Amino acid sequence: MSIRDMTVDTFWKGEVRVQAVAEDGEGSYRTRIFIKNGEIYDYHCSCPYGSSYKGICEHGLELFKKYRLREQEMNALPVSTSPAVRAMIREYTNREVARIMGEETAPVVEFVPCLIISRRGVSLECRIRGKRQYLIKDLGAFADAVRTGKRVEYGKGFAFEHSLLAFSEESRPLVQMVMEETGAYKEHYEDIRKRTAAAAPALNTLLLSRSACDRFFAIVEGREIETETCRGHRTRLKFLRGKPAIRVRAQRIGREGLEIRIPDELMVFQGEKSLYVADETHLYCCDDESTENLTIFLTQILSEPGGARKVSVNERDIPLFYERVLKKLDLSGILESGGIDWDYYRPGELQARFEFDSRQPGEITMKPILSYGDFSFHPLEDEKIPKEICRDVPEEFRVSRLITKYFEYREDNGEYLVIRDDEDAIYRLLSEGIDRFGETGEVWVSDSVKSMKVLAPPQISLGVSVHEGWLNLKVDAEGMNTSEIMRILSEYKQKKKYCRMKNGDFLRLTDDGLLTLLKLTDGLALGKNELQSGMISLPAYRAFYLESLVKENGHIPFSRDSLFKTIVRDLQSSETVGYEPPAEQRKVLREYQKAGFVWMKMLDGYRFGGILADDMGLGKTLQTITLLAAEKEERVCGTAAGMAQPSVSLVICPASLIYNWGHEFSIFAPSLRVLLVTGPQAERQKELEQIDEYDAVVTSYDLLKRDLPYYMEHTFRFEIIDEAQYIKNASTQSAKAVKAVKAISRFALTGTPVENRLSELWSIFDYLMPGFLFTYRKFKTMFEIPIVKEEDEEALENLHRMIRPFILRRLKSDVLKELPVKLEKVVYSAPEGKQKELYRAAALKLRQSLVEDEKTAETSGKFQILAELTRLRQLCCDPSLCFERYNGESAKLETCVSLLLSAAESGHKILLFSQFASMLGIIGNRLKKEGIPFYLLTGSTTKEERNKMVNAFHRDQVPVFLISLKAGGTGLNLTAADIVIHYDPWWNVAAQNQATDRAHRIGQEKQVTVYKLIMKDTIEENILNLQEAKKNLADQIVTEGMVSLAEMSREELIKILEI
Question: Can you give the residue ranges of the Helicase ATP-binding domain (predicted)?
Fold first, then answer.
């Protein structure tokens, strides 16, 4: 809500009048309040509640709130500007001025570095160069000047506003680095000053960290930079990256000794990533190899006392010193040997021999022998090696690590290492360890060890063919018998790397087909009996599962006959199958509906079943009717396979949808003879005796249970269950009844194949193709527990692989381009029992009065007629609206609740409109029993509650909004909903459409489905037909059709009362 144009007038004795315009989204209202002693004593507002005895309206309260805020602001103390704010303004202004001046002045100022290399580290000295150079005496103050744009004078006639733009482009990266490094230094010093109160000294040089050295070199690489050496001399060095051009000299000294010396002018320091070496003309950033080889050598030799830049080596240590240190320099080409023959000092090479033997079953011993020349020793007993032997310690260590990797124990005498009674360790040694020892030294293997073989895994191959609806699967494992295959798979399932054969050999268990075979046997629940013969018979519906499992896992030869390939191809892409819908349906089917029909037809061709799980409103009924129509067309034309097959199909649905199925048949397939099985038992029995005269029979789940013996006498062409979630509990009588009916092909229609538990999916497939998902006990072990409780992704993927071809689900978002922006559907119900009797009596009474008395239809009697017509409409909605003690059923209420349950379970949001607020209360009570949350908006709902509910409906998970047509038909934005239900038809189509537009309006991103609930053979159906007739005329002229009672003739009134 907003307040505008507020004026305040003060009168005698402190009285105040406040006036304004209040806007709340529904209108603008003139509002006045009168205040005395800080309280409202009178008010007026032009809104409907502005003069209510209940108290001041929301507009007056909002105006009073705005007035008090204004008074608080006017009476508040004056605010003074903080010194920090003035400093900010000054500094930002100076910075902007410096930037402008920097843009106007050509960047001629150079920032000149000087690198100082000393024993304590590497530091940086900097100068400013204009016409001459000026030393920067405080780098910290310089950095602050650049940050703030301060003008600094360096000498007579040379001053400028500091900023990055004032420096040459080449200088700016270095200036930026100095600013960051000095900033870090000052932060560090500030932290110290908190404890010591010491002032930060002027920073005439900047000590560079290792990472700062790397950054400095990256900036100046390729340039000549002034450098101060360790001895205080200044020179210019060129900074280069690569291998340093230095020489390391080796020469003989004294008796049996060597001296290693580096040049006097050599300077060395380390960065974070690289070593830096400088001679008289260059400073090198060493490459990775030089950094690795030189860092320890140079840093150690430079750390010698007195700066001698040399080290001496006794002859006894020369072999190892050369092998570990000098050899790298020699290979790099920087070692000057001075005629020294390094081969003379090369140490004797370490020789290794490993002897493997097996003296008894389950045991392998190894005797390791290491030697330098003629001296041999055990690697775990090296304390007796003579000191004159130059040992290869790293290689000895590598050998010891290899031994301990494969052998944990030594025999008592210590000479042999042993593996005993440990199959895993023996397998690891045989499969990989002996080869590793062979890479390290000489290996000797006794015959007893050679006899322990590690065999390659068996080559698995599969072959499949199709015969009389069954898959014949042959498994071959290079001649292995069934018991061996089962044992190998058992070991592999335990993630073992080998299987110990009866003859003692080890069979390597790698994935070469074993994983595929294991998944196949587990996925199809195959046991020893199935594998025993080598030829396994599987139902044809396993074709896709078998193909996808082998294809995804690979590593296995797989031969298939042409019929198997055809089945797999059709299951993968049914659109390639050349089925065409009958001409009668072809003109109304959308492309995705044609694809659904082809899919069902393809499954039927192989006598498979399937779940058509399209979203609500996408035409599952139409696709099924097309299937039945196509079957009749083929039967009549003589093209159906197997001419003796049954001709009658059975459709089972909730009782509330029987007449809706009948209506859909009459619209989309009027040539089909359809029997709707309803009414008392005697009437049903008579109808069922004539069942063979029809193409399709429609009954309910409840009536099927009662009439099951009649149905079990027949075999149906198709058995179709609508709202298949009705059999989600396999133990119910409904589930048992539909599974007891005999049919050639079965299909299930549902928008929610799984609502709460995976057992629901099992029950539906147990109806479609018994045994497809095994017994429930097996299904629970294989899928339900691993997926639900253990979140096993592999089990979930295995289930998907198995059921994928037999479930077709399209959401509205998937086929949005084929759908109209607003999809309208009429859902029919039919009154039964007490409801039917009450309606017929009331309708006949009114019709009789119109027939007998012509004056009844005149203006004077129209009010009485309207009341009677309203009573008839209420009887259609629910007789309890007219009779308080009515305890029978309401067919429309059952249809509505079924529709709401399906929509809510599928994740939709629904608006339900009714003209009768009391009907909304009845629906609300029923939703409470079903556990579905909802909002209720009627004429008695306050504006505050109304707005709160509308906003919440957009945000939360409440699926249903019950709305009175008059209270919520206009002025609401409810685009969160994508389903609209009109519970009772309205005379005025435009008013109905206005209600629909609460969801179908700008901002709606989903396709909207509108359901009209109509009672068949009642005034509701007749009103709908009259509206459609007038709409067709209106579409040709101006606007939408509207039924007006005032304009209806006596004949028209009599007609809409026809039963």
Answer: 601-771
